[in-house]
Amino acid sequence: MIFRISRSCFSSISVKLPPFKVHHLELDQLPQTTTTTSAELLAYYKSMQLQRRMEIACDNLYKQRLIRGFLHLADGQESIYEGLHAALTFDDCVITAYRDHCIALLRGDTPHQIIAEMMAKQTGSTKGKGGSMHYYKKATNFYGGHGIVGAQIPLGTGLAFAQKYNKKPNVTLIMFGDGAANQGQLYEAANMAQLWHLPAIYFIENNLFGMGTSIDRASANTKFYTRGDVIPGIQIDGNNVFQVRETLKFAKKHCLEKGPIFIEAMTYRYHGHSMSDPGVTYRTREEVQQQRKTRDCINYVKNIILENKVADEHQLEEIDNTAQNEIDIAVEQAKVDPVPPSTELTTDVYVDNQNHFIRGILYKDSILPKSQ
Amino acid sequence: MLRIVHKLRSGFAKMTVREAINSAMAQEIERDPNVFLIGEEVGQYQGAYKVSKGLYDRFGKSRIWDTPITEAGFTGLSVGASMYGLKPIVEFMTFNFAMQAIDHIINSAAKLHYMSAGGLKTSIVFRGINGAAASVAAQHSQCFAAWYSQVPGLIVLSPYDCEDARGLLKAAVRDPNPVVFLENEIMYNEAFEVPDNVMDKDYLIPIGKAKIMKEGKDVTIVTFSKMVKFSMLAAAELEREGISCEVINLRTLKPLDRNTILESIKKTHRVVTVEEGWGQCGIGAEICSIINESNAFFHLDAPVVRVTGADIPTPYAFNLEELSFPKAHNIVEAVKLVLK
């Protein structure tokens, strides 16, 4: 595909942001518009398509039983991950729960590594030993990948604590859902963050359902952006990549100057909670279709691209195909990759694994410390 | 360092276990800027049991962190900080309260290195008092040695005397793995003579190595923490009756020092295990199984006798509490049983 690089690639396009709701903040502290460029629009579009295609591919692989166990897909929420990637750097920490594939992708894993991990291959991000819920990358400050709802919140608060302890000009983005927002450990952690002025962004991905329970049935107060009590909060449209980006830029500045902040991003997941949940017993198919038609985060960017004649349908289709192709190649490669060797069973239990005793199923199969 | 070490004679000093832990923490905080102490009342209050006395005045609020009463929160926070590269010493006022945070010890810390295929590690020490104190009743008296010892990825240590407390705690702080460090409130006040080298800022005890407190030839007593004291008292009494006991102080509960235990059995042919915790699936049960799985089994002249806490939540009444946990006379009786 050849793109004519014209001046318009870099000239700015103005984007009006949706309204914000604020808690212990003034609306005039937040921008009403932002700017973007053709190049940036196409980059966001391509990246979000790649995320979308990757998640759909995982759905197919699961149905073919090539991915097993738990699989929590994030298709529909790509703009959140794109927005955080645009606003933050790899010196800012990110931590989340188990709906983590897209973050793993944006924090440096390749589609092949991510898919191979779920297919339990040795070439996976965590050698096949973690699976869908356990991606990590120290080099880009991505700390997982956690299966226990809410556990990532104090952990992330600790990352922010460590950044401040080390006097870093960086923040930690702590991501969790509307379900986790009722966890006691959130309030324990946020309390300390506020007391100690930690650079922690408490980021609620509100997709309206905690597994099969709507926010109204789970939360006495569904205004999650206010749940930080004395901690300021902002509610945004999570399906608007620009609003996510600009809000996180604001949040980073706020955190480094003052302390923690709560961000609630309204969004929607097309799949159920996980692959064992069809997602239509607690919401209607019509509602899901309506969301796809009117609030899809990729279509939002697509419309801006088309309206501003940044590209035409045909060119966008080519980008779609390129993304699909990249995923298809990753899947095919992962299919032929080997599973982890059985020696990997007992590695990585300890940092200095060779100094430790690891019991086997029978005592005679145990791994003895090197010294013995 | 606090002038808490009383010089007795050249080459030796006398200190309490409390002072031993205090001095070990002070040295490690001094040595490594990434080490910090965090917990309830550890700072301005000087420690709920005065173990961290003087540390806040010496190191300040950037190294000694007082927390709200929120174990899940501050334990998770500490594990997160260790993921980034700091080295927290997390004090639980008692390990009974750590149950509020146990998800972070097990799921967030212990399993992380494996789940991340070596990508992340958590170098962290969880320390606090464990087991019975005195008349603090059921919710404040449990021994957690067995629970934590079962978990792959954790190191579990339990000191008895000052030498143990200093050497093991310093080794724990410097170890790259998550460590559970089980102290004992009654032992805090016990004083021991320590040779000068124990006060050295780099005095370390190897993890995974038990110590033979007293050599003997008739029975091996395997134990840890406060029960070492009662075992030594029992051994002294038995010695007067002509029975020679070898007392092994485990020091490390995970990884257990199989070799020291098994070598001792080949010598004595009889074993008594002593622990304060409940018997089912306890440390004594594990030792029985270890013996079973090795050729030391064939060196036994009698089945192993276990001495454990009674299978009850701890009662408050002093006389009942006395009947709940092993004492020296129970150990004497156990040795005589295994010799019968």
Automatic annotation (TrEMBL), chain A:
Residues 47-340 form the Dehydrogenase E1 component domain. Its EC number is 1.2.4.1. GO terms for molecular function: pyruvate dehydrogenase (acetyl-transferring) activity. InterPro entries: DH_E1 (IPR001017), PDH_E1_Alpha_Subunit (IPR050642), Pyrv_DH_E1_asu_subgrp-y (IPR017597). One of its GO terms (biological process) is pyruvate decarboxylation to acetyl-CoA. It holds the Pfam family E1_dh. It catalyses: N(6)-[(R)-lipoyl]-L-lysyl-[protein] + pyruvate + H(+) = N(6)-[(R)-S(8)-acetyldihydrolipoyl]-L-lysyl-[protein] + CO2. Keywords: Oxidoreductase, Pyruvate, Thiamine pyrophosphate. Its cofactor is thiamine diphosphate. Signal peptide: none annotated. The pyruvate dehydrogenase complex catalyzes the overall conversion of pyruvate to acetyl-CoA and CO(2). This is Pyruvate dehydrogenase E1 component subunit alpha. It comes from Paramecium primaurelia.
From TrEMBL, chain B:
It catalyses: N(6)-[(R)-lipoyl]-L-lysyl-[protein] + pyruvate + H(+) = N(6)-[(R)-S(8)-acetyldihydrolipoyl]-L-lysyl-[protein] + CO2. It comes from the Eukaryota. GO terms for molecular function: pyruvate dehydrogenase (acetyl-transferring) activity. Its cofactor is thiamine diphosphate. Residues 15-190 form the Transketolase-like pyrimidine-binding domain. It is an enzyme of class 1 (oxidoreductase). Its EC number is 1.2.4.1. InterPro entries: PDHB_mito-type, Transketolase-like_Pyr-bd, Transketolase_C. The pyruvate dehydrogenase complex catalyzes the overall conversion of pyruvate to acetyl-CoA and CO2. This is Pyruvate dehydrogenase E1 component subunit beta. It comes from Paramecium primaurelia. The lineage of its organism: Eukaryota, Sar, Alveolata, Ciliophora, Intramacronucleata.
